[in-house]
């Protein structure tokens, strides 16, 4: 369970919709919540090392940010027993979030994101996009309401978990169980259609047909795999309902989004297999999932993946320096 939850804020009511979600999880786990906001230290300059800083125009933003965080914390504290602290971190928003993780041991980030294009289906913003590419703790991206209404409560009823059979993909299961609680879980496996070539003449249709026998074997194997994972998840959450589904599709991302719609999932939980382009469980399908779903998304970039990214970056830099 989560002992320390970080909630990035940008001063907007939409960002604040992440707070009740974080509080609900912290109450269940006996954890604490930290509200964090970034500020730009470039607004300060020193005439010398021995003199106090001179406030440039806009430096009042720091004082306003501190006051904002204190006001929000004071507003929510009476309604919860969860310890709430605040932190103002220098740098851009994404850098401030990762910096806060470096300074303190937070094990979950809860944030809303709506980008700069309005509240369309492409709702992930640049800050959230940068965060999920960088951090190695789970990030819960909460879908914000587009108008005034009841803020998200933090409870999820239907959780879709796409899996591809890899150990990395399965790393999301523990977090999905902790976030979803006793929800209904749907474990999804997306396979590509199995076809065989009829003849070598690609200009003469049809050149391919579905291989029914092999397809049946793929389906059987996929269901056996998902049933085994379901038993593991059920052992962790005995009160939860766990269903499995296997679908065939050329594009996994489209299939995941369609499954989320079919099941009316209010949370999709998945693991990144990312290189720096933040490609998730099914490679480029990640972008479709993050930008295409109407619900919230729980994303995990495992440390083993991050280590691989770092090693690749070092190797690339060394090669470039030769």
Please specify the SSE layout and strand pairing.
Blueprint (H helix, E strand, L loop, with lengths): L3 E5 L4 H4 L1 H12 L2 E8 L4 E3 L6 E3 L4 H17 L7 E7 L2 H11 L4 E5 L13 H9 L4 E4 L15 E6 L3 H4 L1 H9 L3 E8 L3 E3 L10 E3 L1 H25 L4 E8 L3 H11 L4 E5 L13 H8 L3 E5 L2 H19 L1
Parallel strand pairs: 1-2, 1-6, 2-5, 6-7, 8-9, 8-13, 9-12, 13-14
Antiparallel strand pairs: 3-4, 7-14, 10-11
Name the strands of the widest sheet in spatial order: 5-2-1-6-7-14-13-8-9-12
- Total domain modules: 2
Shape summary: elongated
Order of helices and strands: EHHEEEHEHEHEEHHEEEHEHEHEH
According to CATH, the fold-level topology of the largest domain is Rossmann fold
Strand tally: 14
CATH superfamily of the largest domain: HUPs
Number of helix segments? 11
Question: β content, as a range?
Answer: 15-25%
So, CATH architecture of the largest domain? 3-Layer(aba) Sandwich
What structural class is derived from the secondary structure elements?
alpha/beta
- Note poorly predicted spans: 115-123, 274-283, 305-320
Summed over residues and divided by their number, the pLDDT gives a mean of 78
Question: Radius of gyration from the CA trace?
Answer: 23 Å
CATH class of the largest domain: Alpha Beta
**Helical fraction:** 40-55%
What profile does the largest beta sheet have?
Answer: 10 strands, mixed
N-C termini distance: 47 Å
């Amino acid at each position: 369970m989560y002992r320390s939850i970080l909630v990035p804020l940008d001063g907007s009511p939409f960002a604040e919709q992440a707070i009740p979600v974080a509080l609900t999880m912290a109450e269940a786990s006996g954890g604490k919540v930290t509200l964090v906001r970034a500020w730009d230290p470039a607004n300060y300059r020193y005439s010398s090392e021995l003199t106090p800083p001179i406030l440039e125009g806009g430096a009042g933003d720091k004082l306003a940010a501190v006051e904002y965080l204190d006001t929000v914390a004071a507003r929510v504290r009476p309604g919860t027993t969860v310890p709430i602290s605040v932190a103002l971190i220098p740098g851009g928003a994404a850098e401030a979030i990762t910096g806060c993780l470096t300074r303190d041991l937070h094990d979950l980030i809860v944030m809303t994101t709506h980008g700069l294009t309005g509240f369309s289906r492409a709702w992930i913003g640049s800050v959230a996009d940068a965060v999920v590419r960088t951090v190695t703790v789970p990030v819960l991206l909460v879908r914000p309401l587009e108008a005034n209404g009841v803020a998200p409560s933090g409870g999820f009823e239907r959780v879709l978990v796409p899996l591809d059979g890899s150990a990395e993909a399965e790393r999301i299961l523990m977090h999905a169980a902790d976030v979803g609680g006793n929800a209904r879980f749907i474990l999804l496996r997306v396979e590509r259609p199995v076809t065989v070539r009829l003849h070598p003449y690609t200009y003469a249709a049809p050149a391919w047909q579905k291989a029914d026998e092999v397809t049946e074997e793929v389906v059987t194997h996929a269901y056996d795999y998902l049933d085994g994972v379901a038993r593991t998840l059920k052992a962790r959450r005995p009160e939860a309902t766990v269903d499995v589904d296997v679908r065939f599709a050329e594009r996994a991302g489209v299939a995941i989004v369609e499954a989320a719609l079919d099941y009316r999932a209010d949370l999709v939980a998945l693991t990144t297999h990312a290189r720096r382009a933040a490609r998730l469980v099914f490679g480029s399908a990640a972008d479709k999932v993050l930008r295409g779903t109407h619900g919230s998304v729980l994303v995990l970039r495992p440390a083993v993946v991050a280590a691989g990214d770092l090693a690749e970056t070092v190797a690339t830099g060394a090669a470039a320096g030769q």
